[in-house]
TrEMBL record:
The keyword Metal-binding does not apply. SUPFAM superfamilies: Sialidases (SSF50939). Residues 82-127, 168-285 form the Photosynthesis system II assembly factor Ycf48/Hcf136-like domain. This is Photosynthesis system II assembly factor Ycf48/Hcf136-like domain-containing protein. It comes from the Bacteria. Keywords: Photosynthesis, Photosystem II. InterPro entries: PSII_CF48-like_dom (IPR028203), Sialidase_sf (IPR036278), WD40/YVTN_repeat-like_dom_sf (IPR015943). Pfam families: PSII_BNR. It comes from Acidovorax carolinensis. One of its GO terms (biological process) is photosynthesis. The keyword Magnesium does not apply.
Length: 362
C-alpha cells in the first residue's frame, strides 16, 4: 500500500504471527494462482493434527473455551480443556482474535479482512466481512463524502488503493459491547464498526487521527472508554463509545502490542523490549520489568493480578496493577499467545503449538 520501515513488519507481534502463510500445502499451481482468494473460499481443513498447530487467541463463551489460529482453525472444549472439537469455519485464513459477549454470540477477526460470527457458542461460524467488501465500503463512503478538497481527495485515493490491493489486509482485534454493537481494527489503520450484529459494517477511519495509516495492533474497553494501541507509539482514546477519538502523546516511540483495562480505571500498555506503562488521567508511568523482551499479551486475572506474555515464551505477573513485575516459573514450552482462567488454580493458554494447561502463578 505504501513504502514503510522495517518496523511495519512487526504488525502481528501481538498475536506472534501476522504474515504467516495461510494456505495449506497443496499443489504449487493452486497456491500461486491466488492464495488470498483461495483461502477466503476454502473452508478450514478438519483434521486431528490441527489441535497442535498455531493458535493465536483463546476466550470463554460461558463454560465453553474457544481457541482460534492459523488456517481458519477454531477449536472448542466443553470440559475445561480435557478434549477438543474443531468448529465448522467457511475460510482457511489465519484467525487472529476472538471475542464473546455471552455464551452464544461471538466474533473472530482474521487475515484478508475477515470477520466471522457465531450464534451457537463457537460450534459453527459464518463470514460477515472480508477484505474486498471492506475496501468497497471504504471507497463508497469516501466517494459520497468527497468535497473536492485535499483531504477528501486523499481519502478517496487511499480507499481506491485499498480496493486495488485486494483483500490482503488483516484485522487484528475485535470488541463487541453487546450482541449488536461492535468494531474491529487492523493493519494500515483499518477500523470498521457495526450496530446490527455484523450484518452491515461502516468504516471509521475518518474518526481517528492517523494520517500515516499506522497499524492498529490491539484495543481495550472500559465502559464507553476505548483505547487503541499501534505501531510507532500510536495511541488513540475515545470516551464516548467510539463517536470521537483523541490521539495521545506516547511516552516512548516504539510500537505497542497489548493493552488491558484495570479495575481501578487505569490502562496497562505493553510493547517492544519489555516496555510496560500504566496510563491514567495523571499521565503515564513506566513499570519495573525484569526481562527486556517484546510483550504480546496482557491478561487480567480474577484476583486482580495481570499476566504478561512475551515473545520468548516467558510470562510475567504483577500483583500491584502493573507497578512491579516478577517472572513466572512454568515448564519450558512454545511461546504463549493468550491465556484464560479455568479456575482458581489453573490456566489454559493458546500457543504456537496448540493449547497448554498451566498452574496459576503462586
Amino acid at each position: 500500500m505504501k513504502k514503510f520501515k522495517k518496523e511495519r513488519f512487526d504488525i502481528g507481534r501481538r498475536r506472534a504471527l501476522c504474515f504467516v502463510a495461510t494456505v495449506p500445502l497443496v499443489s504449487m499451481e493452486a497456491v500461486w494462482a491466488n492464495p488470498v482468494l483461495d483461502a477466503l473460499r476454502r473452508p478450514a481443513f478438519v483434521a486431528p493434527h490441527v489441535r497442535g498447530g498455531v493458535l493465536l487467541d483463546v476466550a470463554k463463551s460461558g463454560k465453553r473455551i474457544v481457541a482460534v489460529g492459523e488456517r481458519g482453525v477454531v477449536l472448542f472444549s466443553d470440559d475445561v480443556g480435557a478434549t477438543w472439537q474443531q468448529a465448522s469455519v467457511p475460510v482457511s485464513v489465519t484467525l487472529t482474535a476472538v471475542n464473546f459477549v455471552d455464551e452464544k454470540y461471538g466474533w473472530v477477526t482474521g487475515h484478508s479482512g475477515v470477520v466471522l460470527a457465531t450464534s451457537d457458542g463457537g460450534g459453527t461460524w459464518r463470514l460477515q466481512l472480508e477484505g474486498k467488501r471492506a475496501a468497497d465500503l471504504w471507497r463508497a463512503e469516501a466517494s459520497a463524502g468527497s468535497k473536492n478538497d485535499d483531504d477528501s481527495d486523499k481519502r478517496l485515493q487511499e480507499a481506491q488503493r485499498l480496493v486495488s490491493d485486494g483483500p490482503d489486509k488483516p484485522f487484528l482485534d475485535v470488541h463487541f459491547f453487546d450482541r449488536k454493537r461492535g468494531f474491529v481494527i487492523g493493519a494500515y489503520g483499518l477500523i470498521f464498526a457495526t450496530a446490527d450484529g455484523g450484518e452491515t459494517w461502516s468504516p471509521w477511519m475518518d474518526r481517528l487521527d492517523n494520517p500515516k495509516a499506522l497499524h492498529f495492533n490491539a484495543l481495550a474497553v472500559q465502559g464507553q472508554r476505548i483505547l487503541i494501541v499501534g505501531e510507532q507509539g500510536l495511541l488513540l482514546q475515545s470516551v464516548d463509545g467510539g463517536k470521537t477519538f483523541v490521539r495521545l502523546s506516547s511516552p516512548y516511540p516504539g510500537s505497542w502490542f497489548a493493552v488491558a483495562a484495570l479495575p481501578d480505571g487505569k490502562w496497562l500498555l505493553a510493547g517492544l523490549k519489555g516496555n510496560i506503562y500504566t496510563y491514567s488521567p495523571a499521565g503515564f508511568s513506566q513499570c519495573e520489568v525484569p526481562i527486556p523482551v517484546t510483550i504480546g499479551c496482557l491478561s487480567l486475572m480474577h484476583d486482580g493480578s495481570v499476566l504478561a506474555l512475551n515473545q520468548a515464551g516467558q510470562a510475567l505477573i504483577s500483583r500491584d496493577s502493573g507497578g512491579r513485575w516478577t517472572s513466572v516459573s512454568w515448564p519450558p514450552g512454545p511461546p504463549l499467545t493468550a491465556v484464560v482462567e479455568l479456575d482458581g488454580s489453573r490456566l489454559l493458554a493458546s500457543s504456537l503449538r496448540g493449547v497448554r494447561e498451566l498452574p496459576f502463578p503462586k
